[in-house]
Request: fold
Amino acid sequence: MNGRPRLGSARRTSLPLGERTGADGAPAVKLGSARRPAPPPRVEIPHDADRGLPLLRLSSEARLMDDLVLGDHVKERLQYIVDENAKLDDLRALGLKPKRTILFCGPPGTGKTLSARIMSSMIGYRFAYILFDSIVSSLLGETATNMRKVFSFVEEGRYVALFDEFDIVGKSRDDPTEHGEIKRVVNHFMQMLDTYDGDSIIIAATNHPHLLDGAVWRRFDEILHFDLPGPGQRREILEKYLGYARHDPDCDLERMARNTGKYSPADLAQICKDAIRFSVIRGRDTVLNSDMEWAFNEQKRRKRAIRKGA
Ligand SMILES: Nc1ncnc2c1ncn2[C@@H]1O[C@H](COP(=O)(O)OP(=O)(O)OP(=O)(O)O)[C@@H](O)[C@H]1O
Ligand SMILES: [Mg+2]
Reply:
């Protein structure tokens, strides 16, 4: 495997991820290392001039691709982007650039944010979560200025920068001004993307790809679609999340996987966590099938309530 960081095998990888550092000097996360990584150096986070709010949040991620259950195609593409960026300096020496601008599309709870965090962990760059609520300002011109500040910040260092739900801008979807505002913000973003020439990886995530016009799609080096899981993947997700606790062999995960069509990985994770919590409350150290059934009904109720409120 010629020493490249392998998805799902960061703990075992022969490439010492933790020994790479970002251009901003931030130490990469050393996965599986017993030593605590040195605290990252302080950097000046950009702020909104009007309200003084930070425009992004930085973190160091230590997550594994094994945490993620995805279709093979998406995992392969993520791996490819990780590989290219791990060879950034070699590519640059040849006048080439790795893929650095990526669009994640897909329904809520399918792993877009988690994938961005995992990529940051695999590549060894710090994770920059862009805070759209802070970027969007009521002051004329300030939104564009904020966007510029964020881009120059990520351009100067090495980050995996996530512009999460970049086409949703606060207000109600019924608001007729909302469409114009979304367009304005997306336009600022695209203008910045056009001239972007940093080493950081820029990821934009959306669960409303239909709101984006054709020009937007062409701007990205890579577009990945995150789909709802099929029955096999649902079973895998249930096993993964239930695996954190002892569970009774009677837990019928096969049946649960069959009955949870249209459920997202986040919904399934929630069912497992609820079932584990419920068994603890009942003073047991083993999750029973009845706990899973209870948690499934809870999740059904929650989803109904969300649909009513939406
Ligand atoms: N593909 C997946 N495999 C394993 N767990 C997942 C997956 N997708 C989501 N999860 C679980 O659900 C949680 C929420 O997922 P995440 O925030 O990544 O979804 P998202 O696609 O970004 O959703 P949204 O569109 O609402 O932002 C994750 O932290 C993880 O626990
Ligand atoms: Mg998300």
